[in-house]
Amino acid sequence: MAKVETAILDKAGIARAITRIAHEILEHNKGCGNLALIGIRTGGDHLARLLWERIKEIEGASVPLGAVDITMYRDDLAARGNLPIGKTDIPFPLDGRDVVLVDDVLYTGRTIRSAMDALMDFGRPSTIQLAVLIDRGHRELPIRADYVGRNVPTAREEQIAVIFNQDHNPVEVQLVKP
Question: How far apart are CA 45 and CA 14, in angstroms?
């Protein structure tokens, strides 16, 4: 049976969503003075870089940027078998910072819980906020995004695919139906 792919956001739509999220982050945090962005590998780290670039354009200042790999913090590691372990790169102290955790798609909330566990091993942020490009619902944990590019109600059997080009820039978001 063929899968049906429907474009939800194109490159321009993604760019608009990133710009809006950047403005919302800056407004909520009253600028970027105490801010740090940390993307969840693989997908959230690329979006965090785009948010970092947009915030730098808007504010004229650079905020710390990092990436976190959650492989060893997953609660389904035994069921999934051997997963490749990526690199966590947080080259700045987290203590007292307002951290914006960035991911591409929010679904059950388990990835975000794992990422928060990983962050706590690196320090004690003042706040942890969540920015996602797509929120598709179906939460299994009490986790809510602070900044959302687009809410896309889905059925459990459907998937959301964020398509990146070779330069790790998002070019399309697709709803994939079985």
Answer: 15
CATH code of the domain containing 21: 3.40.50.2020
What's the confidence (pLDDT) of residue 81?
63
C-beta atoms surrounding 55 within 10 Å:
25
What Cα–Cα distance (Å) separates residue 139 from each residue in 96, 109, 142? Answer: 28, 6, 7
Instruction: State pLDDT tens for residues 107-147.
Output: 999 999 999 999 999 999 999 999 999 999 999 999 999 99
* 4 falls within a domain: no
Bond before 42 cis per omega within 30 degrees: yes
Whether 132 maps to a domain, the answer reads: yes
Look at the chain and report how many structural domains it folds into. Answer: 1
The single-letter code of the amino acid at 160 is I
At CA 34, angle to CA 30 and CA 37, rounded to 5?
A: 100
Cα(131)–Cα(82) distance, rounded to whole angstroms? 28
- Which residues constitute the domain of residue 92? 12-154
Total-model pTM:
0.95
Of 102, 111, 178, the C-alpha closest to 143 is: 111
